[in-house]
Amino acid sequence: MKTEPIRIQVVDDHPLIRDGLSALIRQCEDMRLVAEAADGKRAVELFREHRPDVTLMDLGLPVMDGMSALRAIRREFPDARILVLTLRQGDEDVHQAIQAGARGYLLKGATGPEILDAIRAVHRGLRHVAPEAAAMLVERVGDSPLTERERQTLEAMARGRSNKQIAQELSITEATVKAHVTQILSKLGVDDRTQAVTRALRRGLIHLD
Question: Of 50, 65, 141, nearest to 84 (Cα)?
């Protein structure tokens, strides 16, 4: 008896990547492309319409970012099988995606065969996390996560804002900003603001895109 092909949705805002993934999938007899989306909001809408077996999802999406789209789909469809395919490899990115319900995490440097193997694994109900991404999770051991306000402070720092400007943007006092900065440096294990921003960007604690 012939097995039904794996129905796949591709979500990426870069047309060349989306086209490349679509072409890769069309070459496989056991797969069928059912939807393509260029932003997170459209991905949620198309998931409702097509109910794909596996969704390939980038995280850096416009309108609604990939993490929010992932969470939205999983809230509505708890059994949704979503495979993240992204440039982001910070430990926080990987952790948040898995926590949100992603069944797999691949980096965009993955080869065609690796991507196809991951799709098949996720479709079978298995988890598939790229070794490089899995290794990044080790950095989380013993870490104290940033609070939302600390993360907002850190993002403002990354944009070059002074304590006074941060206080105005977040409607808090400068003394509170200084307290947040002290906590941020301690939690990230760094000595100054520049190191804090560099480490946070590398780990995916904040994003400027």
Answer: 65
